[in-house]
TrEMBL record:
Signal peptide: 1-24
Domain of life: Eukaryota
A Gene Ontology BP annotation from the UniProt entry: plant-type cell wall cellulose biosynthetic process
Organism: Setaria italica (Foxtail millet)
Classification via InterPro entries: COB_C, COBRA_pln
GO CC annotations, alphabetized: plasma membrane
UniProt name for this protein: COBRA-like protein
Span of domain COBRA C-terminal: 225-416
Keywords associated with the record: Glycoprotein, Signal
Assigned protein family: Belongs to the COBRA family.
Transmembrane segments: none
Length: 446
């Protein structure tokens, strides 16, 4: 019985844990989701007066953020609802409002409206708090202030819910945040939220509906976008990103690329800028063809400490990554002693897992990873007693994620070796490493 269970767990582990997260559960961010609240500020169902609702979108994810072109929230109305007016966002289409004749027409009569955030700089009288950032949502770790978006709308022509005793409108359904990889639940009624109207006062809304959207890498199709290369002070070999990590040059799935030239000297197609859609990737040609490369260099060995230099290079020639972040797994991160030029926060701190952390740029300094540019850090780690070693690839990161996407690592048997013929021992520990990890993982599961 025990053996059967063991084998089953082993199979489950092998099939599902390889590199992508199974389902929507992310062990690095177990509570990460996007929550959408509909807070009713006025509601007079009896006389079917238009109601006013504040819709807010909260990114509760520690390291995933929503980048341009931003969220596009859509849903299906339960009945014949129309949106009379909006603040802080707008519907992409007005739809067929002909039944309202001339004069005063609604903002949107579509059965399935698509709402988008307004751009920064929107006139003040069209704004609400937390609006108008072009659909961008920060990760919770990077800024809990800009991880929320909101808009307000006035809705008319609605019907009362049959099971709500006629006191509430019928709930819309089929929610979608319009960002690849996310899927949303139906709305549920939750205890009404309080909202802050000024520094000292909170008001209670009349009714709150809540929708939860979760991310899964399985749902987000598409090629890899990032790879890792390695080097050390003790070996002159540089282990590059695996060939074709993000596609092979010239194949239909790989991004277009530009060869040669010094950085900054290439003639680039005009565009990008303030357009809604980001330009299709155009990368500097390379063996790996990834828009992002993370280079980990083991730089110095001190008696009690060691030093790593990490460089994140943007090979994409038409894209700046604003508010980029990097999630890294390495057993020595818990003894990170000093870090230059980046922000850092440990990410997972439960039980024995304390080996994952998040790095991101410093505001007004390197929070933006420029097209064809790079950002760098050096860090000093205290050697963990009885654990630290330069052999067996221990000094290299186990996993790396850029902007929430897992990066392709070189195969372990290509890691830079120690010079003094320690290769047999090295090979043994390379094999022992993962299986020990597997065993300790199983011990936790069973
Ligand atoms: C938001 O972050 C700031 C500083 O990073 C912190 O002081 C504050 O408590 C946070 N607010 C919430 C609601 O988590
Ligand atoms: C959501 O609600 C719609 C309409 O009430 C229903 O058809 C659908 O099955 C529901 N979906 C889920 C996942 O419950
Ligand atoms: C990236 O930022 C630089 C400097 O701010 C700017 O010149 C360039 O146009 C930006 N590129 C895109 C694609 O937005
Ligand atoms: C994890 O590491 C941090 C230092 O990076 C330390 O402050 C914290 O106490 C550690 N947590 C556990 C559970 O070991």
């Amino acid at each position: 019985m025990g053996t059967v269970r063991f084998v089953f767990v082993l199979l489950a582990f092998l099939c599902c844990s390889s590199s992508r997260f199974a389902g929507a559960y992310d062990p690095l961010d177990p509570n990460g989701d996007i929550t959408i609240n509909w807070d009713f500020q006025s509601l007079d169902v009896k006389d079917a007066n238009p109601y006013t609702v504040m819709v807010s979108i909260h990114n509760n994810q520690l390291y995933r953020h929503i980048e341009r072109p931003g969220w596009r929230l859509s849903w299906n109305w339960a009945g014949k609802e129309v949106i009379w007016g909006t603040w802080g966002a707008e519907a992409t289409e007005q739809g067929d409002c002909s039944r309202f004749g001339g004069g005063n027409r609604p903002h949107c009569c579509q059965k399935r409206p698509v709402m988008v955030d307004l751009p920064p700089g929107t006139p003040y009288n069209q704004q609400v708090d937390n609006c108008c950032r072009g659909g961008v949502l920060s990760s919770l770790t990077q800024s809990n202030r800009t991880s929320v978006a909101a808009f307000q709308m006035t809705v008319g022509e609605y019907a009362a819910a049959k099971d709500g005793g006629g006191k509430e409108p019928e709930m819309p359904w089929g929610f979608d945040v319009g960002v690849p990889g996310y899927s949303c639940s139906n709305a549920t009624k939750v205890p009404p939220t309080r909202s802050k109207v000024d520094k000292n006062r909170h008001v209670q809304v009349l009714l709150t509906w809540q929708v939860t959207c979760s991310y899964s890498q399985y749902r987000e199709s598409g090629a890899q976008s990032c790879c890792v290369s390695l080097s050390t002070f003790y070996n002159s070999d540089i282990v590059s990103c695996p060939r074709c990590s993000c596609g092979c040059q010239g194949t239909p799935t790989s991004p277009r690329c530009v060869a040669g030239g010094e950085p900054g000297t290439l003639a680039l197609p005009a565009g990008g800028g303030d357009d809604d859609e980001p330009a299709a990737p155009l990368v500097r040609c390379s063996e790996h063809m990834c828009p992002i490369r993370v280079h980990w260099h083991v730089k110095v060995n001190y008696r009690k400490y060691w030093r790593v230099k990490m460089t994140v290079s943007n090979y994409n020639l038409v894209r700046n990554y604003s508010d980029w972040n990097l999630v890294l797994q390495h057993p020595n991160l818990r003894s990170l002693t000093q870090l230059f030029s980046f922000n850092y926060k440990p990410l997972v701190e439960y039980g024995t897992f304390n080996d994952t952390g998040m790095f991101w740029g410093i505001r007004f300094y390197n929070e933006m990873l420029l097209q064809d540019g790079n950002v760098q850090t050096e860090m000093i780690l205290e050697k963990n007693e009885g654990e630290f070693t330069f052999s067996g690839g221990w000094a290299f990161p186990r996993r790396v994620y850029f902007d929430g996407h897992e990066c392709v690592m070189p195969p372990a048997d290509q890691y830079p070796a120690l010079p003094n013929g320690a290769s047999a021992a090295r090979r043994r520990s390379l094999l022992a490493g993962p299986s020990l990890l597997l065993l300790s993982f199983l011990a936790l599961l069973v």
